Amino acid sequence: MTGVVLHLTEASVDKHRAVLRNALNLVPEVEPGTPIELVVHSEAICLALPGQATADALAEALDAGIILVVCRNSMRQQDLTDADLVHGAVSAPSGVGHLVARQRQGWAYLRP
Amino acid sequence: MTGVVLHLTEASVDKHRAVLRNALNLVPEVEPGTPIELVVHSEAICLALPGQATADALAEALDAGIILVVCRNSMRQQDLTDADLVHGAVSAPSGVGHLVARQRQGWAYLRP
Amino acid sequence: MTGVVLHLTEASVDKHRAVLRNALNLVPEVEPGTPIELVVHSEAICLALPGQATADALAEALDAGIILVVCRNSMRQQDLTDADLVHGAVSAPSGVGHLVARQRQGWAYLRP
Protein backbone atom coordinates (compact mmCIF):
# COMPACT_ATOMS: atom_id res chain seq x y z
CA MET A 1 0.00 0.00 0.00
CA THR A 2 1.47 3.32 -0.99
CA GLY A 3 1.45 6.06 1.59
CA VAL A 4 1.84 9.78 1.99
CA VAL A 5 4.93 11.80 2.91
CA LEU A 6 4.63 15.23 4.47
CA HIS A 7 7.72 17.41 4.13
CA LEU A 8 8.71 19.93 6.81
CA THR A 9 11.89 22.05 6.98
CA GLU A 10 11.04 25.09 9.14
CA ALA A 11 11.83 25.59 12.83
CA SER A 12 8.70 27.57 13.73
CA VAL A 13 6.52 26.18 16.50
CA ASP A 14 3.38 27.55 14.82
CA LYS A 15 4.35 25.79 11.61
CA HIS A 16 5.00 22.55 13.51
CA ARG A 17 1.59 22.75 15.18
CA ALA A 18 -0.12 23.40 11.84
CA VAL A 19 1.62 20.52 10.07
CA LEU A 20 0.92 18.07 12.90
CA ARG A 21 -2.75 19.07 12.63
CA ASN A 22 -2.62 18.62 8.85
CA ALA A 23 -1.17 15.14 9.33
CA LEU A 24 -3.85 14.21 11.88
CA ASN A 25 -6.58 15.55 9.60
CA LEU A 26 -5.25 13.31 6.85
CA VAL A 27 -5.66 10.08 8.82
CA PRO A 28 -9.45 9.70 8.31
CA GLU A 29 -9.12 10.77 4.64
CA VAL A 30 -6.93 7.88 3.45
CA GLU A 31 -7.62 4.16 3.28
CA PRO A 32 -7.16 2.47 6.66
CA GLY A 33 -3.59 1.24 6.96
CA THR A 34 -2.13 3.84 4.63
CA PRO A 35 1.24 4.87 6.07
CA ILE A 36 1.68 8.60 6.70
CA GLU A 37 5.22 9.83 7.30
CA LEU A 38 6.22 13.30 8.47
CA VAL A 39 9.76 13.83 7.18
CA VAL A 40 11.76 16.58 8.91
CA HIS A 41 15.16 17.94 7.95
CA SER A 42 17.23 21.10 8.31
CA GLU A 43 15.88 23.40 11.05
CA ALA A 44 12.71 21.35 11.43
CA ILE A 45 14.37 18.47 13.24
CA CYS A 46 13.91 20.24 16.59
CA LEU A 47 10.36 18.89 16.35
CA ALA A 48 11.81 15.48 17.20
CA LEU A 49 13.64 16.60 20.35
CA PRO A 50 12.18 16.14 23.84
CA GLY A 51 10.76 19.10 25.73
CA GLN A 52 9.37 21.05 22.80
CA ALA A 53 6.23 23.19 23.00
CA THR A 54 4.71 20.80 20.47
CA ALA A 55 5.36 17.67 22.55
CA ASP A 56 1.67 16.94 23.21
CA ALA A 57 0.64 17.49 19.60
CA LEU A 58 3.48 15.25 18.43
CA ALA A 59 2.52 12.53 20.91
CA GLU A 60 -1.06 12.67 19.60
CA ALA A 61 0.20 12.31 16.02
CA LEU A 62 2.45 9.36 16.90
CA ASP A 63 -0.43 7.74 18.78
CA ALA A 64 -2.55 8.09 15.64
CA GLY A 65 0.06 6.08 13.75
CA ILE A 66 1.90 8.91 12.00
CA ILE A 67 5.58 8.11 11.57
CA LEU A 68 8.15 10.84 12.29
CA VAL A 69 11.23 10.43 10.06
CA VAL A 70 14.27 12.57 10.92
CA CYS A 71 17.13 13.32 8.50
CA ARG A 72 20.50 12.04 9.75
CA ASN A 73 22.41 14.55 7.58
CA SER A 74 20.67 17.31 9.53
CA MET A 75 21.19 15.50 12.84
CA ARG A 76 24.93 15.25 12.16
CA GLN A 77 25.14 18.98 11.41
CA GLN A 78 23.50 19.67 14.77
CA ASP A 79 25.56 17.07 16.68
CA LEU A 80 22.54 14.91 17.40
CA THR A 81 22.21 11.14 17.46
CA ASP A 82 19.23 8.78 17.52
CA ALA A 83 19.51 8.77 21.32
CA ASP A 84 18.56 12.47 21.36
CA LEU A 85 15.23 11.93 19.60
CA VAL A 86 11.85 11.48 21.25
CA HIS A 87 10.70 7.91 21.68
CA GLY A 88 8.97 6.76 18.51
CA ALA A 89 10.91 8.92 16.05
CA VAL A 90 12.95 7.10 13.43
CA SER A 91 15.85 8.42 11.38
CA ALA A 92 16.75 8.06 7.72
CA PRO A 93 20.17 8.66 6.14
CA SER A 94 18.91 11.61 4.10
CA GLY A 95 15.60 13.47 4.36
CA VAL A 96 15.53 14.54 0.72
CA GLY A 97 16.73 11.11 -0.40
CA HIS A 98 13.94 9.51 1.60
CA LEU A 99 11.31 11.82 0.08
CA VAL A 100 12.48 10.96 -3.43
CA ALA A 101 12.56 7.23 -2.69
CA ARG A 102 8.99 7.34 -1.37
CA GLN A 103 7.77 9.11 -4.50
CA ARG A 104 9.55 6.46 -6.60
CA GLN A 105 7.44 3.93 -4.66
CA GLY A 106 4.28 5.80 -5.63
CA TRP A 107 3.65 7.68 -2.42
CA ALA A 108 1.88 11.04 -2.53
CA TYR A 109 3.85 14.12 -1.48
CA LEU A 110 2.60 17.05 0.56
CA ARG A 111 4.45 20.19 1.55
CA PRO A 112 2.03 21.83 3.96
CA MET B 1 -7.36 14.06 -18.38
CA THR B 2 -5.18 14.50 -15.32
CA GLY B 3 -4.75 17.99 -13.99
CA VAL B 4 -2.59 20.05 -11.70
CA VAL B 5 -3.14 20.95 -8.04
CA LEU B 6 -1.52 24.03 -6.54
CA HIS B 7 -1.25 23.97 -2.75
CA LEU B 8 -1.46 27.16 -0.66
CA THR B 9 -1.54 27.48 3.14
CA GLU B 10 -0.28 30.99 3.95
CA ALA B 11 -2.39 34.07 4.75
CA SER B 12 -0.09 36.63 3.13
CA VAL B 13 -1.63 38.84 0.43
CA ASP B 14 1.70 38.99 -1.42
CA LYS B 15 1.85 35.20 -1.42
CA HIS B 16 -1.75 34.99 -2.66
CA ARG B 17 -0.98 37.39 -5.51
CA ALA B 18 2.12 35.44 -6.49
CA VAL B 19 0.35 32.09 -6.47
CA LEU B 20 -2.61 33.41 -8.47
CA ARG B 21 -0.11 34.68 -11.05
CA ASN B 22 1.65 31.28 -11.04
CA ALA B 23 -1.68 29.59 -11.67
CA LEU B 24 -2.53 31.96 -14.53
CA ASN B 25 0.93 31.48 -16.06
CA LEU B 26 0.33 27.76 -16.00
CA VAL B 27 -2.81 27.88 -18.14
CA PRO B 28 -1.07 28.31 -21.53
CA GLU B 29 1.58 25.73 -20.55
CA VAL B 30 -0.71 22.73 -20.18
CA GLU B 31 -2.87 20.94 -22.73
CA PRO B 32 -6.16 22.76 -23.36
CA GLY B 33 -8.79 21.41 -21.00
CA THR B 34 -6.35 20.38 -18.31
CA PRO B 35 -8.01 21.15 -14.96
CA ILE B 36 -5.99 23.40 -12.63
CA GLU B 37 -7.08 23.53 -9.01
CA LEU B 38 -5.82 25.93 -6.36
CA VAL B 39 -6.34 24.16 -3.04
CA VAL B 40 -6.34 26.40 0.05
CA HIS B 41 -6.43 25.33 3.67
CA SER B 42 -5.39 26.63 7.10
CA GLU B 43 -4.75 30.40 7.09
CA ALA B 44 -4.92 30.57 3.30
CA ILE B 45 -8.68 30.18 3.11
CA CYS B 46 -9.15 33.95 3.53
CA LEU B 47 -8.31 34.07 -0.18
CA ALA B 48 -11.80 32.68 -0.80
CA LEU B 49 -13.64 35.33 1.22
CA PRO B 50 -15.25 38.39 -0.39
CA GLY B 51 -13.64 41.80 -0.07
CA GLN B 52 -10.00 40.72 -0.12
CA ALA B 53 -7.21 42.80 -1.64
CA THR B 54 -6.73 39.96 -4.11
CA ALA B 55 -10.35 39.94 -5.29
CA ASP B 56 -9.55 41.14 -8.82
CA ALA B 57 -6.66 38.72 -9.28
CA LEU B 58 -8.84 35.88 -8.02
CA ALA B 59 -11.68 36.84 -10.37
CA GLU B 60 -9.22 36.80 -13.26
CA ALA B 61 -8.01 33.33 -12.27
CA LEU B 62 -11.56 31.99 -11.96
CA ASP B 63 -12.43 33.52 -15.34
CA ALA B 64 -9.44 31.69 -16.80
CA GLY B 65 -10.96 28.42 -15.60
CA ILE B 66 -8.87 27.86 -12.49
CA ILE B 67 -10.85 26.11 -9.78
CA LEU B 68 -10.57 27.33 -6.19
CA VAL B 69 -10.97 24.47 -3.70
CA VAL B 70 -11.39 25.38 -0.02
CA CYS B 71 -10.80 22.98 2.88
CA ARG B 72 -13.93 22.46 5.00
CA ASN B 73 -11.86 21.37 8.02
CA SER B 74 -10.26 24.83 7.95
CA MET B 75 -13.62 26.52 7.31
CA ARG B 76 -15.11 24.82 10.36
CA GLN B 77 -12.20 25.98 12.54
CA GLN B 78 -12.89 29.55 11.42
CA ASP B 79 -16.68 29.29 11.71
CA LEU B 80 -17.21 29.64 7.98
CA THR B 81 -19.67 27.90 5.69
CA ASP B 82 -19.97 27.60 1.91
CA ALA B 83 -22.26 30.65 2.01
CA ASP B 84 -19.30 32.78 3.15
CA LEU B 85 -17.14 31.98 0.12
CA VAL B 86 -16.85 34.03 -3.04
CA HIS B 87 -19.03 32.93 -5.93
CA GLY B 88 -17.23 30.23 -7.89
CA ALA B 89 -15.25 28.74 -5.01
CA VAL B 90 -15.95 25.11 -4.14
CA SER B 91 -15.21 23.29 -0.92
CA ALA B 92 -13.81 19.83 -0.22
CA PRO B 93 -14.08 17.88 3.05
CA SER B 94 -10.31 18.01 3.64
CA GLY B 95 -7.69 20.05 1.82
CA VAL B 96 -4.87 17.60 2.46
CA GLY B 97 -7.13 14.65 1.70
CA HIS B 98 -8.09 16.27 -1.60
CA LEU B 99 -4.44 16.87 -2.53
CA VAL B 100 -3.59 13.23 -1.86
CA ALA B 101 -6.61 11.99 -3.81
CA ARG B 102 -5.64 14.11 -6.82
CA GLN B 103 -2.11 12.74 -6.79
CA ARG B 104 -3.55 9.20 -6.62
CA GLN B 105 -5.43 10.13 -9.80
CA GLY B 106 -2.16 11.12 -11.48
CA TRP B 107 -2.37 14.88 -11.12
CA ALA B 108 0.81 16.93 -10.82
CA TYR B 109 1.43 18.78 -7.57
CA LEU B 110 2.88 22.25 -7.14
CA ARG B 111 3.61 24.11 -3.95
CA PRO B 112 4.52 27.59 -5.18
CA MET C 1 16.05 7.89 -16.48
CA THR C 2 13.63 10.02 -14.51
CA GLY C 3 15.08 12.73 -12.33
CA VAL C 4 14.21 15.04 -9.49
CA VAL C 5 13.04 18.65 -9.61
CA LEU C 6 13.54 20.96 -6.65
CA HIS C 7 11.25 23.99 -6.59
CA LEU C 8 12.38 27.34 -5.17
CA THR C 9 10.48 30.66 -5.21
CA GLU C 10 11.88 32.73 -2.31
CA ALA C 11 14.51 35.48 -2.48
CA SER C 12 16.14 34.78 0.89
CA VAL C 13 19.88 34.07 0.86
CA ASP C 14 19.51 31.70 3.82
CA LYS C 15 16.82 29.79 1.94
CA HIS C 16 19.02 29.63 -1.17
CA ARG C 17 21.95 28.27 0.85
CA ALA C 18 19.73 25.63 2.49
CA VAL C 19 18.22 24.48 -0.80
CA LEU C 20 21.61 24.30 -2.54
CA ARG C 21 22.79 22.12 0.35
CA ASN C 22 19.65 19.97 0.05
CA ALA C 23 20.35 19.51 -3.65
CA LEU C 24 23.97 18.55 -3.00
CA ASN C 25 22.92 16.12 -0.27
CA LEU C 26 20.61 14.49 -2.76
CA VAL C 27 23.34 13.64 -5.27
CA PRO C 28 24.72 10.57 -3.44
CA GLU C 29 21.19 9.38 -2.60
CA VAL C 30 19.97 8.84 -6.15
CA GLU C 31 21.15 6.44 -8.82
CA PRO C 32 24.26 7.72 -10.63
CA GLY C 33 23.23 9.72 -13.67
CA THR C 34 19.87 10.78 -12.25
CA PRO C 35 19.27 14.37 -13.35
CA ILE C 36 18.59 16.85 -10.55
CA GLU C 37 17.15 20.20 -11.55
CA LEU C 38 16.72 23.23 -9.30
CA VAL C 39 13.87 25.24 -10.80
CA VAL C 40 13.68 28.90 -9.74
CA HIS C 41 10.94 31.38 -10.50
CA SER C 42 9.43 34.58 -9.06
CA GLU C 43 11.73 36.24 -6.52
CA ALA C 44 14.06 33.25 -6.43
CA ILE C 45 15.62 33.93 -9.81
CA CYS C 46 18.19 36.28 -8.23
CA LEU C 47 19.97 33.03 -7.31
CA ALA C 48 20.96 32.79 -10.98
CA LEU C 49 22.50 36.28 -11.22
CA PRO C 50 26.25 36.91 -10.90
CA GLY C 51 27.69 38.40 -7.73
CA GLN C 52 25.31 36.83 -5.23
CA ALA C 53 26.32 35.83 -1.69
CA THR C 54 25.53 32.26 -2.71
CA ALA C 55 27.86 32.27 -5.74
CA ASP C 56 30.30 29.72 -4.30
CA ALA C 57 27.56 27.36 -3.11
CA LEU C 58 25.89 27.60 -6.52
CA ALA C 59 29.17 26.91 -8.32
CA GLU C 60 29.65 23.82 -6.14
CA ALA C 61 26.15 22.60 -7.01
CA LEU C 62 26.67 23.17 -10.74
CA ASP C 63 30.03 21.37 -10.53
CA ALA C 64 28.22 18.44 -8.92
CA GLY C 65 25.99 18.24 -11.98
CA ILE C 66 22.91 19.96 -10.62
CA ILE C 67 21.06 21.87 -13.34
CA LEU C 68 19.76 25.36 -12.57
CA VAL C 69 16.57 26.11 -14.54
CA VAL C 70 15.32 29.72 -14.54
CA CYS C 71 11.76 30.76 -15.42
CA ARG C 72 11.63 33.11 -18.43
CA ASN C 73 8.24 34.50 -17.37
CA SER C 74 9.92 35.72 -14.17
CA MET C 75 12.98 36.94 -16.09
CA ARG C 76 10.77 39.03 -18.36
CA GLN C 77 9.01 40.61 -15.37
CA GLN C 78 12.42 41.62 -14.02
CA ASP C 79 13.81 42.77 -17.39
CA LEU C 80 16.40 40.01 -17.50
CA THR C 81 17.61 37.93 -20.43
CA ASP C 82 19.68 34.76 -20.70
CA ALA C 83 22.77 36.97 -21.01
CA ASP C 84 22.23 38.16 -17.43
CA LEU C 85 22.41 34.67 -15.91
CA VAL C 86 25.47 32.99 -14.47
CA HIS C 87 27.32 30.65 -16.78
CA GLY C 88 25.76 27.22 -16.62
CA ALA C 89 22.20 28.32 -15.84
CA VAL C 90 19.55 27.43 -18.38
CA SER C 91 16.13 29.00 -18.86
CA ALA C 92 12.71 27.48 -19.53
CA PRO C 93 9.65 29.29 -20.91
CA SER C 94 7.69 28.81 -17.67
CA GLY C 95 8.92 27.59 -14.31
CA VAL C 96 5.60 26.13 -13.24
CA GLY C 97 5.02 24.67 -16.70
CA HIS C 98 8.43 23.01 -16.53
CA LEU C 99 7.71 21.54 -13.08
CA VAL C 100 4.44 20.06 -14.31
CA ALA C 101 6.06 18.67 -17.46
CA ARG C 102 8.78 16.96 -15.41
CA GLN C 103 6.19 15.33 -13.15
CA ARG C 104 4.33 14.14 -16.25
CA GLN C 105 7.63 12.47 -17.23
CA GLY C 106 7.76 10.68 -13.87
CA TRP C 107 10.23 12.89 -12.08
CA ALA C 108 10.02 13.28 -8.30
CA TYR C 109 9.18 16.72 -6.91
CA LEU C 110 10.66 18.38 -3.85
CA ARG C 111 9.78 21.74 -2.36
CA PRO C 112 12.49 22.18 0.28
TrEMBL record, chains A, B, C:
Gene3D superfamilies referenced in this protein's UniProt entry, alphabetically: DsrEFH-like
Pfam families xrefs: DsrE (PF02635)
SUPFAM superfamilies listed in its UniProt record: DsrEFH-like (SSF75169)
The organism's place on the tree of life at top rank: Bacteria
The protein's name: DsrE/DsrF-like family protein
UniProt source species: Demequina lutea
